[in-house]
Amino acid sequence: MNAVDPTPDPPRWADDDLAVASRVASGDRAAFDQLMRRNNRRLYRLARATMRDAAEAEDALQDAYLAAYRGIAGFRGESTLATWLSRMVLNECFERLRKSTRRQALMPVATNEPMEEIHAADHEAPEKALARAEMRLLIERKLDELPEEFRLVFVLRSVEELSVEETADVLRIEPATVRSRHFRARSLLRESLAREIDVAERDLFDFGGARCSGIVAGVNARLDK
Predict the structure, then answer these.
(1) Nearest-angstrom CA–CA distance, 182 and 43
(2) pTM of this prediction?
(3) Are 88 and 64 in contact, with CB atoms under 8 Å apart?
């Protein structure tokens, strides 16, 4: 009977990731630039979900990239390079949060992010683009209010559309935990948005003093003709 090789075959992505890591480790800046561009969106969103502040997220992401560049020679392909980078970003974010724990305990993180410039498609009315942007900002604000463990899972699963297994690998939690946290995050977010809508409904078709006075004045003017 032939002996069974106890060493499992490497994952199909391992060779490619190890090759990229080797190029970066050798000082290939073009390869590193490509690696950053390939992962920028996911990693920024992960940092933004953790830090709850755009500027802090950008700073954390840049520092994480620097740490990754300096330490990529130690990458062994035990996870995907994207997962390895995600953990680097989370480590950087958590370290920043630990340093500001006392301040965070005294007051919630407040963001004064300016509304991003809106670029409407040629066929889209500007007011629709504005409405969509305002809805996105509302969802971001409500997402920021979720507990961290739910927020991170929601971003990875619903925003970046990672699988349950990929999310579990990034966060180093069990797949069952990913499923339960994702379900809870969606429920909390829906409840929060529903409350916001309930409040907004009472302000529909606002009829303030100026409009009231204008109608009265208009009727009186017509009566006086």
Answers:
(1) 19
(2) 0.69
(3) yes
Domain 11-105 has CATH 1.10.3720.10: no
pLDDT tens-digit readout, 188-203 = 999 988 888 777 666 6
Secondary structure of 194-214 as H, E, C letters = HHHHHHHHCCCCCCCHHHHHH
What average pLDDT does the structure give for the chain? 81
CATH 1.10.10.10 for domain 120-203, yes or no, is yes
Specify whether the CB–CB gap between 87 and 41 falls below 8 A.
Answer: no
CATH 1.10.1740.10 in the chain, residue ranges? 11-105
Q: Hey, what are 20's tokens?
A: 């990229």
Q: Angle, nearest 10°, between helix axes 81-99 and 14-25?
A: 60
Q: Strand locations in 53-188, DSSP E?
A: none
